[in-house]
Structures are given as structure tokens and as C-alpha cells.
Amino acid sequence: MFTKPSNIIGLFFILLISSITALAFQGLIGFSQRGADLALLEDSYFHSILLFSIKQALLSALLSTVLAWPIARAIYYYPNIFLKQTFLSLSLLCFVLPTLVLITGFVSLLGLSGFITPFLGEDWSLYGLQGILLAHVYMNLPFAVRAMHLQLQSIPDSSWILARQLKFSRWQRFRLIELPSLSANASLIFGFITILCFNSFAVVLALGGGPQSTTLEVAIYQALKYDFNIPEALTLAWSQFAIAGVFFLLLYRSSSVPWLSKDSTENIWIPNIGKATKGIYLLIYTGTFVFMLMPLLALLPGVLAANYSVDLIVDVMEALSLTLLLGVLSAVLAMLIAYCIMLPIRSAVQRRQRRLQNTLQWLANHTLIAPAMVLSVGLYILFLPLIDLDQLGIIFVLILNTLLVLPFAIQQIRARVLQYDSDYALLYQSLKLNLQQRIAIEWAYIRPVMLSTFALVLLIAMGDVAIFSIFGNDQLKTLPWLIYQYAGSYRIHEASFASAILLLVYFIILLKIERAKQHA
Amino acid sequence: MLDIQQLQIQLGDNQLNYHQQINSGEIVTLQGVSGVGKSSLLLCIAGFIKPVSGQISWNDTLISTLAIERRPVAMLFQENNLFEHINVLKNARLGTANIDDDAIFAAAEELQIAEQMQKMPLQLSGGQRQRVGLLRTLLRPEPLILLDEPFAELDNQTRSIAANWVNKIARAENKTVLLVTHQMEDVETLADRNWLME
User: Fold this and answer.
1) Per-residue pLDDT averaged across A290-316, rounded?
2) CATH superfamily of B2-196
3) Which residue of A has its CA nearest to B141?
4) What is the pTM of this model?
5) HSE on the CB side for B114, CA within 13 Å?
6) CA dihedral B149, B152, B154, B160 (to 10 degrees)
7) What is the pLDDT of residues A90-123, one digit of tens each?
8) Which residue has better confidence, A332 or A5?
9) Which CATH superfamily groups domain A1-35+299-520?
10) Of residues A279 and A241, more confidently modeled
């Protein structure tokens, strides 16, 4: 561990982010003067959205995790399957893809006049539970595939050598090697996806509809935007916070899900597979590849049909510049804060203060479960009478985006720095290195993860719509917001063009991530 | 003098007791069955294990209350002595700020690892890694050297070379050495005294 002042910096940041959340809730409570509307808890409307929120989250997580398993096996047991690296990069793209880009693609494919819709029968509708599940599975299945594949990759070759030497049957290999490696992480993957889907906003807003398919997050938005019913919004927000918090506590008792790490060194003793199995794996893999590519390719006809004008190009480029600027600033801040926050957590881990470690981690990551809409609106109401939010709103976009990507940054660097401490804490303390030497050595160890995590949080921050919808203004627009405006005014071709540009930028940044991992 | 006074360490359900004086410049080997607390004692002197009671002094200065960084101790662990992501030479330089590369290479030559200095630790055998750790520990300026099974992975010939080198440097620099070993050969080559733990 570094010196104590560094722990204090970390604790300061934890206090700061917790205070911002507290301020947001204070803003809402102070404005309504009444606090939450507890009678709502008895209401059937509340029960139906609560049930739907949990149902869609659990179903999305279950489908993503269960379907990911055979796909991860296919890539693992068939290591030279075609375009494997591209497939893994595309998986990452699907996870971080701005929701509006995805929905534009899905609407072109499966919407009322989508390319595939005529083949799906008269009963088909993209809207409602099936559309939400489809979008959630699209975004989270690839994440689960990557995480499980990585887990399989970490099976040491010595296990396979031993298995061969002991003449294990296929069932024994599965039961004694594959299953133990996957089982612990599968529940983590399931839990993590459940939280993400439970808090899902844009997908449900776009593809849900009516109380039958509304989640708590969207209900909060509706209570605030349409009814301006703050007590109701508060009740919904507290409920969301509490339920997601329980999920999160359960999840965080175990370790994090590694999924961005470098693939392990070559595994040359992976069991060979027969021709029939190869064929099945090829089928599963190709099907998944097509599923992931289709919504992206569906943007192309719109791009070709767009009415290109100087105004369109200028608008898109200006919005892209702002998106990149805000994204980079948020990502830099999030990385710095995440690193500082990890310092007291690492100290607690080394001292085996499990309870303190869990508390700090929970506080540091609480923005993963705090509804983005509540944070934005709470702060908006609190600061509206105090400062000119038209002028300074963009600063709030930056701060809130930083807060919301922070858990992803912590999640990714946590495993690496804890591993570093576990391997080297005794050594670096025993060597009595000065601060500069410690940082230089530690940086060399964590640099690849820091760079790829930076790119990841940059992509997530660049995709924001929810926060910008509250604090943004018409003079300064981000690209996702511009896409939303084009789509909202039925300029679907322009929306497709702007989506394609954003997709291209995402793709370039993704290539950088993959390159950083290769050099890890 | 290293003065270990009524030291008690809790190791699982067992309480380990130590009471011993070791003169400056003395080389003492530690022997005893596994689990008797040899490594725990070294870790306690280095500051990684907190004793239940008792104290450790070095030249009449109490060190058992000092932070790890302030103790006059250089220690070689049984494993994890090298950072895997930086090369061997950079590893050897750590903690040896006053030693120039010539001295490091001269020592490496004697320990027969000079050709490995530009490699990454992963490219080295267990024995080579152990000698890199040994080299660094002995070249560090601290007067009190703790070596936890430093020759465990060495063949007989290399073991003898490494032991003689430790003996030479420790005597020349007047270092006090505590060395855990299971081999009587090490006791005969190096030790002024053998501390048999029971």
C-alpha cells in the first residue's frame, strides 16, 4: 500500500460521490416537501411495474447466461474457428453500443416496416416484453460469452494434461474441470446482467409501452417528466435503489467478473473435438455472428438513402466533437477517481478487513444502482434556483457521466490491482521502494488494463442520453442526442447516418482496446 | 546484536515462542520440521507478521514496533521474489540504489546468471530466479539478511556456488544472516551456529 494520505484521497472521493447522490435525493425531497408517497407501495400499478422490472431483468439475464454457455464452449474448444478475434471484438461492441444506435437498427430490421418483419407472422411486434428481451440479450449475451470464454481460457494446461493422463471421459472432463471453472463465475455474470437490465432505461423507453411493460426506471422518468409527481418518483427511486442494492450486495460479496483481460497464453492441451461436434459449434457460432451483425448492417440502407447536405455533415461532426470531448474528460476523471478509490479498498483487503472492504466497495459502486434519472433530476432541481443551468449544464453532464461510468472503471481495474497486491505486496514493502519507484513498477503492471478500461468507459460515457436529456441544451448536442432528435422527427435516414458515424468511431476505439490487450 | 525477547506468534491454533540473541555479523541457520515456525519468525522480524507479545531489537533499538520500511532488514521469500512484468536486471536494481550495474553484473557472473539479466523472469528456471532474488537481497544495504530456503531449487553444484557467494558477501559486508534450510550441507558451509527449532 502507498502511504496513508493516499488512502485519505480515496476516502475523500468515496465521500464526494456519495454526497452527490445524497444531494440528488435531497433535491427531490426538498422540492416536494413531503418525502416519498408510501401509499404507492400498496397500489397495483406499482406492483405491476415492480414485477415487470424484476421479470424482464431475470429473464434477460437467464437467457443471456444460458445461451452464452454453448457459444463460449464453441470458441474455446474450436480455437481456430473462423474470424474468432473479430467475433470477440464485435461482442465488446455489442455491449457498449449506444442503445439508440441498436434500436435504430432493430427498428429497421424488426419494426413495423422492418426487413424481416413480414416473415415473422402477423402477431409479431418489436414492442413489449419480447422486444425488450431481444435488445437486452443482444447487448448482454456477448458480454457473457466473453466472460465465460475467458474463464475457460484460464483452465491451466496442466489440468488437461492430467485429465488425459488419467483417461477422463467427456463427462468427467466436464464435471471435474469445466464446470468448476464456470460455475462460480456464471452466477456473477447472471447477477451483473440482472442489475444492468433492472436499471435499463433507453431500451424500455423505446421498446416498452404501457404499465404492462414499464420498468421502475422508466416509471421514474414518466412520473417526473409527464406528471411531475415527485413523491411518486421518490418512492419508485427508493424501491429501485433498494432492490438493485440487494442484488448488488449479493454480487459484490464475490469477486468481479473479468471479461476484458487478455486471453491466456496458448492452450495446447485443450481436448480435441470430433467432426460432428465441430459442425454443431460452427452452426451455433455462425448463428450468433449473424445475430450480432444484422442490426448493424440494417443501418446501411438508411445511410445510402440519406439526403446529404452541408448542414447535416456539420451538425453530425459538431455533435461528434462534443461527444468525444465529454467522453474523454469523463473517462480520464473516472480512471483517476477509480484508481484513488481503490487505494483504501486495497489497504482493507491487505488487512483482511472484509466488512470495511465491502462497505467501501458498495459505496464506490453505488452509482451502478442509483437511477441515473433520479441523480440527474435531483441535482437539476437542487441547482436550478442557484446557478444558470443553461450555461453550466454541460458541467453536470460531465460530472454525472463520470459518476455513472465509475463502477465500470472500478470493476475492471479492481481485479488487476488486487492481483498485483496479492503477488507483490510483501515484495514491494520489503524492498522499501520510494513512491516514484512504486508507481513506475505498478504502472508497468496495470497499464494494459488501465488503457483498455479507459477506452471502455470512454465508449460507455459517449453513449449517454439520459443525463443529457436533463442537462443538455439545443446549442450543444452530443451525437446520441442528435440521433434521438432525428429519430424523434422521423428523419430515419439521417438517424441511420449519424448512427453509422458513431458506430465507426466506436469501432476504431474498440480496435485500440484489442490492440492494448494484445500488448498486455 | 539481534535480540529476540520472549517473542510469541500466533500461527493458526499454535502459539510459537522464541527467545534468542544473534551477534552482529553472525550467520545462523534455522532448522526444524515443517510448521515449527521458521518462516513465521523471519516474517515477524521483517514486519509482515505482528507478534502477540515480546519484542525484537537490533543494536539496542526496538524494531518490532517499526514500520516494515524502516526496519534494517532485507528478506528473500520462499517465492514471489521477482516482478514478472519487468526484466531481470530491473528487478535486481530494486532496493539496491547505491549499487551500480557493474557490481550487479559481477555478482551475477559469480552466481552464473549474467546471461539472464536482460530476460523476463518467466523465461528463467526456478533456480535462476532464486539466484536473482538472492543477489538482490545480499546487495541491498540493510545489515540484517533473512533468507527463507534460498537454495531449495538449486542443484548440488549451483547450491555450493551460491552458498559460498553468500558466505563471502556476508562476511565482507559484516551482515547478520538468518537462513532457513533443511540441508546439513548449508549448515556446514555457512553457519556460525545452527538454531534447531522444536
Assistant:
1) 88
2) P-loop containing nucleotide triphosphate hydrolases (3.40.50.300)
3) A431
4) 0.77
5) 11
6) 50
7) 998 898 888 888 888 888 888 877 888 888 888 8
8) A332
9) MetI-like (1.10.3720.10)
10) A279
pLDDT in tens, A465-504: 778 877 877 778 899 989 888 877 878 788 888 999 999 9
Q: Are B29 and B181 within 8 A, CB to CB? A: yes
The answer to whether B119 and B88 are in contact (CB under 8 A) is: yes
Nearest Cβ partner for B80 among A423, A437, A445: A423
Torsion over CA: B78, B81, B85, B87 (sign): negative
Domain ranges of chain B: 2-196
For B63, phi then psi, to 5°, come to -110, -15
Which among A424, A426, A431 has CB closest to B48?
A: A426
DSSP state of B65: T
Q: How many helices (H) does chain A have, and how many strands (E)?
A: 21, 0
Q: Does any CB of chain B come closer than 8 Å to the CB of residue A265?
A: no
Q: Which residues of A touch B81 (CB under 8 A)?
A: 427
Percentage of chain A exceeding pLDDT 70: 93
Which residues on chain A are in Cβ contact (under 8 Å) with B74? 430
Instruction: Verify whether the Cβ–Cβ distance A437 to B75 is below 8 Å.
Output: no
* Residues A324-380: tens digit of each pLDDT: 999 999 999 999 999 999 999 999 998 888 888 888 988 888 887 777 777 887 888
Measured distance CA(A515)–CA(A43) in Å, rounded:
53
**CB proximity B106 to A under 8 Å:** no
Give the minimum alpha-carbon distance from B121 to chain A in angstroms, rounded to a whole number.
Answer: 14
A408 near A195, Cβ under 8 Å? no
pLDDT digits (tens, 9 = 90+) for A28-83: 777 766 666 777 788 888 888 899 999 999 999 999 999 999 999 999 999 889 99
Q: Judged by CB atoms within 8 Å, which residues 272-311 of A form the interface with B?
A: none
- In angstroms, the CA A507 to CA A245 distance is 33
Taking the Cβ of residue B69 and every Cβ of chain A, the question of whether any pair is shorter than 8 Å is answered with yes
pLDDT above 70: residue A186? yes
Cβ neighbours of B95 in A, within 8 Å: 430-433
The answer to whether the beta carbons of residues B175 and B143 sit under 8 Å apart is yes
Q: Enumerate the H helices of chain B as residue ranges.
A: 38-46, 88-93, 101-110, 126-139, 156-173, 184-190
Question: For residue A183, what is the enclosing H or E element?
Answer: helix A179-198
Q: Which chain B residues are Cβ-neighbours of A432 within 8 angstroms? A: 68-69, 95
Q: Count other C-beta atoms under 10 Å from residue A296's C-beta.
A: 19
Closest CA of chain B from A466, distance in Å:
41
- Asked if pLDDT for residue B161 goes beyond 90, the answer is yes
Lowest mean pLDDT among A496-500, A515-519, B176-180: A515-519
Q: How far apart are CA A426 and CA A446, in angstroms?
A: 18
Statement: residue A210 has pLDDT above 80: no
User: Three-class SS of residue A219?
Assistant: helix
Under the phi-then-psi rule, with left for phi > 0, alpha for psi from -120 to 50, and beta for the rest, what region is B16?
Answer: beta
Chain B residue with CA closest to A422: the answer is B80
With an 8 Å Cβ cutoff, are B95 and A433 in contact? yes
Residue A69 contacts B, CB cutoff 8 Å: no
Per domain, the residue ranges of chain A are 1-35+299-520
| CB-CB contact of A239 with A53 (8 Å) | no
Q: Which chain B residues touch A426 with a CB distance below 8 Å?
A: 48, 77, 80
Task: Give the strand pairing for B176-180 and B27-31.
Answer: parallel
Q: Under an 8 A CB cutoff, do A429 and B73 touch?
A: no
Residue to substitute from A265, A417, A430, interface B, most B β-carbons within 10 A: A430
